[in-house]
């Protein structure tokens, strides 16, 4: 009997071992997995909290839109759905459907015309019935904010061969659809091309009844959905361009205006009882045309012109701007629009041939902005407008912004009787090296446009409180929050007497530190709520009541950082009596979660949950206590979860990347050490799955200032824009170390050395790092530090630097071409941290420039410097390359043509990812050298051959007399200076 039991046990054990042996082994992540790794986008919850929409999209290919009825385990999916939304009554889901990736690609290969390319469709899904109505060839759609009965969708121009649509359920609100409008009339701005309209369909969702309007170029719902406004293009002399209104209750079209050439910027008030737009009768195609501001109400037979060049209140020789965004106040009593001075010379010179015209930029020391900045801002300046208002009841115009005070801001809702005008005109010459920039601020009376100087020479940004009672700002000059009653003449320092810092306590650049941000205002401007590093504070803007720490110092005492989460985006203030949800981060462990507290009630914050995750995108259903949020850590993608406002029994809804379980992934942990001067530091160490501390692993060291707080971030396998993909390298058996760096002004390179090297040494001392096979990688500021480190130590076997600055002396005088700004500011006051001009601190510029120490480099270096980089001039990479090449140092430079600072095109990202892997695998794992490293890629075969094939080396033989073996960089850290 015993033998039978033993035999049975052996058989069961053997069977278990057989099943276990048959379990598929996990795979290593490769570059081929990128396209299949997915992300969740465009998630939205219905107002009643019952339904959730979210798209799961691969990095390349066709995505899937998911519809879930929360509380149930089932749902529906829709291929390629996007731009999704629920109607306000939670009865319908509406979304567009993309053409398939394959169909679009085939059309591109066949070089089809734009109008022949595959187009979007529209889907309208009835949530109760489960049925879906589809419409082909839809450009866009809109829903009213507060009315769930209507949808308006704009159709593409029909193809000549397209069959007529069944209109058996359609009522025609205008004459039959017109033929395509004739081309030839210039659009605004002198483009020379007339915009053709297409059919707009208004659909009543409960009944399916549709109303169609031809030749439409623009359309807009009122918030309540009681009105649909739309613009029609001109067809011919009998069918003029115009603006129309459709009353959704009366089901009736009302003409608003017609007969003009161009209509722009239609906008309505909150009640849907007023409409405003700008229009022009000018059909000449000039660069600048005269526009009128028009105003309409349903009581009017036609829209009335309320502002143009000749109207009182518009400055002499000024015009109504076609580019300004129009807007009504919440009360509907004010209409805000834009004006601008009519240029004295704005017509093109037709007396000269283009070949005879001189193209020249004249730089002078008197220019307020240097020429590159002027050129970058040219289009913005050409479209700049100056804020003005039309008093709807008083029927008068008040000009608010001027050439001297060009920027004017209003309180939320635009209900206050004052505005804030700001100007940096007096300080423009210092832009580029004086940061934070300075400005003056004025209070402007909206009734008559009068103004008074409120704040002189501030480095902050004065704004109006929600109720418009106070001007408030953070002042970097003295690191304090200030407020000033709009009726007072001087500000009050609200935080001067408090013993905590409201400036960034970790600031390590030679510039004034930023603040920790604003929580908001309470109703009627009773309190201003601001943040310190840890806690929330309640300030009396009048400066009479003492400041109160809302979170009772609990954050500072426990290393917790609290930040308010608004669960009602429509609220402009923070509720005083309601419980506040606070997103919380443990600054020591990096765990995150939520606490709750009150603005006015005493007592410490109450914990809701804290977990080793990151939490983002917390949103509440408008008419329900249901919450949707996302949480993630290194091992778990940021999937969607639902719960209630008490965070009871959270439920995971999505599973975007189930395939991850098939791959070797790894883990991450927080590590700490001390810099060479004894400063405590921390960083992240990523380890391969099934890590064995008794083994030795090659290690990549990546860095960019501070990253420890990203401990619980998920990182998708994806092709690289410039930096290593951590999951990929960890899956392939690498350790990845991400150290934090603390800087000393004037010594950025030295600071990196004294922070990073001790961190690396502390890990080597643990015994599991293969100290003979370590490498560096960084991009931009990180790329500079990589270039600097290889001049200071040869402990790394290889290094990759993306967009590095190699010579601070030449870079200092250059231009950041993406913005047109001088590069001086970043060396003197920001990231480069020198803290003075080139002539004030020449030796520090030289000592921090890798170029001057290239003879010391023994580490093979791969660089990327793209020829359209607008942040770091690509010649910085060239300088480093040419110096190393001349010294016969192993160096490679990748230049992606037309690419920016970080790669934008996916094909290039994939290419860089492969090359970085080949580079590091060759040096740290002994993999064969690819052809591009060994032989290069001659320009004769550019675009035909890429040199990615690996070249197997013949077996090594004993060196012949006189032949020297290739030197291998030593693993011992060495100071070279």
UniProtKB/TrEMBL annotation:
<dbReference type="InterPro" id="IPR029058">
    <property type="entry name" value="AB_hydrolase_fold"/>
</dbReference>
<feature type="region of interest" description="Disordered">
    <location>
        <begin position="954"/>
        <end position="977"/>
    </location>
</feature>
<feature type="compositionally biased region" description="Low complexity">
    <location>
        <begin position="956"/>
        <end position="977"/>
    </location>
</feature>
<dbReference type="GO" id="GO:0008239">
    <property type="term" value="F:dipeptidyl-peptidase activity"/>
</dbReference>
<dbReference type="InterPro" id="IPR001375">
    <property type="entry name" value="Peptidase_S9_cat"/>
</dbReference>
<keyword id="KW-0378">Hydrolase</keyword>
<dbReference type="GO" id="GO:0008236">
    <property type="term" value="F:serine-type peptidase activity"/>
</dbReference>
<protein>
    <submittedName>
        <fullName>Alpha/beta hydrolase family protein</fullName>
        <ecNumber>3.4.-.-</ecNumber>
    </submittedName>
</protein>
<feature type="domain" description="Peptidase S9 prolyl oligopeptidase catalytic">
    <location>
        <begin position="749"/>
        <end position="926"/>
    </location>
</feature>
<keyword id="KW-0732">Signal</keyword>
<feature type="compositionally biased region" description="Low complexity">
    <location>
        <begin position="170"/>
        <end position="188"/>
    </location>
</feature>
<feature type="region of interest" description="Disordered">
    <location>
        <begin position="164"/>
        <end position="198"/>
    </location>
</feature>
<feature type="signal peptide">
    <location>
        <begin position="1"/>
        <end position="21"/>
    </location>
</feature>
<dbReference type="Pfam" id="PF00326">
    <property type="entry name" value="Peptidase_S9"/>
</dbReference>
<dbReference type="InterPro" id="IPR050278">
    <property type="entry name" value="Serine_Prot_S9B/DPPIV"/>
</dbReference>
<dbReference type="GO" id="GO:0006508">
    <property type="term" value="P:proteolysis"/>
</dbReference>
